[in-house]
Design brief:
35% of the residues lie in helices and 23% in strands. The protein is α/β, with parallel strands linked by helices. Helix 11 crosses helix 13 (379-390).
Amino acid sequence: MDSIEKNKKLFIDEEAFITLSMLSEGLLYPVTSLMSQKEAEEVNKTGIYKNKSFPFAFILAPNGKRNEEVLKSVKKNDIVELVCQNKTVGKIIAKEVFLIDKKERVKNIYGTDNLALNGVKKTFQRLGNYAISGDLFLDESPIKKDIKRVKKAIKHNKAQKIVGITTNSNPFHRVHERIIRLALEENDMVILFLAKNLKSDGLAFDVRYKALDVIIHKFFPKNKIIIVPLHNTYIFSGLNEVIMDSIVIKNFGCNKFVMGQTHDGLGIHYANQHTKTIFDVLKGINLETITIHEYVYCNICRTIVSTNSCPHGSHHHIKYHSEAILELLKQGIIPPPILIRKELTALYLTSLFKNRFENTQKLYYDLIPNNGIIENIDEEKLYIELIKMYQTMSMT
């Protein structure tokens, strides 16, 4: 068996690998390498790196007894291999190894070191006691193809005004659609950054991606919109989500960032008789930010309106709460089409309740008007036709 000195390896999880991939591909610029102890301390103190906002030190401090033994043995210019899921994925040319304060680290990320909070506890547990700084070289990158795809689309469209929108689309509803349309009105291109969580109790990522793809191809000029997976790793947690989103969106090529005024990370407050947000303290990130008011359906206006422009009270407003709509879907209930397009409801219910009906074909032809031509009917088609029937008006 090789000694530690001859075979230095650090074992990292998928979350760390994806985060390092963002660094390697330039999505975290101005950060281009793992920070030294001096740089880390300065960034944690000031929130600035190379005259640009960066909310906390970017370090690699993997946990585990084996990793700690390796890190203690590392000397300057040593080559340390990175292993993820039993596969070598890259290397670090070491410059320095230093002790970190794990509680301070999670506090810098989340704004608290309260380990009773699940996210804080999880991040604390995956941290080791030592960090390594140096130049990073990855053999592969799960996000390289997305960067190339975006650059190609920008060039093809000769886009100058490029809007980035981050979204969970869990599920995608009518207000999401309205926001995209507004973004397209005065801009050349929209990039939808769809959150790809490593673990989620909502709709699966591939289902959410397919839903966006369906909407774009059917109801939008598809050459002007592109979907990009945004891997939501721990660096996007807590108070710094909006800052990190801004940095990544800017480095993808966007020059505008649209987000809802109700976003938790926006940090709206009042100072000197003016509304302030987290964007007022960002430095060096040349990104135009556009915050939009909450949208509702008003049963007097009979359309989707901004709460800032509708004169009617909230008792006339139908609200678009994603959690509530998702709960209906999870219970197998068809949400009203005023909330979600029928095509998406059918897609979501089919994914949540696979093979729900014993004989979909018979059920369809027993209930749905048809032209007598026999065709293969899947559950998605059945849901769509049922929703159409729900919208049928009575003669009485």
